[in-house]
Every structure is written in structure tokens, then in C-alpha cells.
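Example 3.2
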Amino acid sequence: MGDGFVFIEIVIFAMIAAFLVYRLRSVLGRRTGEERQRPNPFTPAPSTAKPDNVVPLPERNRPRPDVAVSPDEPLSLAASIEQIRAADPTFEEKHFLEGAKAAFAMIVDAFARGDTATLRPLLADDVYESFARVIRDRQAAGEQHEARIEFVREAEVVEARLDAGRTAFVTVRLVTDQVNVVRDRDGTIIDGDPKALVENVDVWTFARNIRSRDPNWSLVEVRPVQ
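Structure, written as C-alpha cells:
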């Protein structure tokens, strides 16, 4: 009986270990050379709720009010968003903001950890090069950066525009409470406090070719806050 119980315990622990490995692989992903296939933060997760009787469909064939474009007067924010929606009926401001917050968290975390594989598909080329340069300098100095977002206080679209009827640019202002710490190669803190929350204000611009089947938005500008 004792040997039988030991065997059962081994089987149970093996099943638990296999499950944990599977979950870790599904969350962290595998480096297979196809890192661009990582989950897109701007794509909503499939809903498990019972569908309503009315199923919303993209209204690509339904005419929308024309948005007047004056060469002398810039569009208002609301008109700019409507212009983007007229060109891409799948665009919804609320959904976009949720994706922007998720992308912001992924980018901040990956940048702190020096994870360029995660950053690459989320950033435009010039932004990626700037981030990668800082990561290389930090690694050369032996510094370790810890950044943790504890709370997103505000997230709002502050600018939007459609360029040449093809590329949508949406600028988001994010106010977050973060923990930011920099340690030297010996682990000694040289900046920040691991127990202190710091309010950060970031203004990031995301862009997407709305004629592309790729639903991903890329970070194209990190604007200094005045």
C-alpha cells in the first residue's frame, strides 16, 4: 500500500509540473525566431459571455457622415477620430485605449528587463533603435532597471489624425503610479526606492496602416511631457 501511494503521488506531482510548464510557456512564449507572433495587445480577448440576439458586424458598407477636411483649419479631436472610424469601421476609441494600456505595460516591463525580442514588434524602427541603444548602454554599465506599474490613473486620447487616408496616428496620455529602481552591478540601489510609488506622465503616439490586415499598432513617438 505504501509503494502504491508513493507511485500515485509521483504521478500527481508529474501532472502538476507538466501543467505549470505548459502555463509558463503559454505566458512567456518560446524563442523560435517568430517573436512577431506574440499576442497583440490591441486585439480583444474572445468573450465567453452568452451572445446577445443582436450581433454587431463591421459596418464597412454602410455610408458614414463625411468629415470635412479644411486645409486651413485642423480637425477637432472628435472629428479626427470619426475620420479614422470612417476609414476603418473596426476602430473604437475605448477598445484602442485598453490595447494602449496593455501595450504600455508590456513595453515598460520589456524595456526594464532589456527584452528586445518583445520590444521589436511593438515599436517603430527609430523608436526601437533608441530603446535598444539605452538597453545596450545600461548593460555595458552593469546596471539593472526595475520598473513596475502599480496603477493606471488616467488614459485618454489627446490627439488623432489620418495621414493620406492610409496611416492612423493616435496619441495617448497615460498617468500611472510606478516603482522605478536602478541598481548597479553589485545590486546596490543607485536611483529610486523599491517601496515608493512615483507618478509618471507619458504621452505616446501609436500608428497603424489601416489598409493592412495586420491589426497591430506600433509605438512611433515618445513625447517628453512639458
